[in-house]
Amino acid sequence: xxxxxxxxxxxxxxxxxxxxxxVLLSLADDAGEDGWMLLRSLxxxxxxxxxxxxxxxxxxxxxxxxxxxxxxxxxxxxERFPTLCQVMVGSDGL
Length: 94
Hints:
Layout: H1 3-11, H2 18-30, E1 36-39, H3 43-49, H4 53-65, E2 69-71, E3 83-87
Antiparallel strand pairs: 1-3, 2-3
């Protein structure tokens, strides 16, 4: 868990909706101090955000477009897991 990533994610107030914030917080909670984490599936962030896997996919796409996360180049829609993901702590992306 990266406390820095969690605090950063909580501090984001513009440009993302509640679901995107919950998904980002879930990723930040699983991230190491360097912001990297292994995303094994979309089930965990979906469960934590009380949303569907499809909704989480959409949130991840938007977070990536904003530059708030990086993924290892895999296509989220293709559901190739596990995949590496980095929470871009400090980026305002908005």
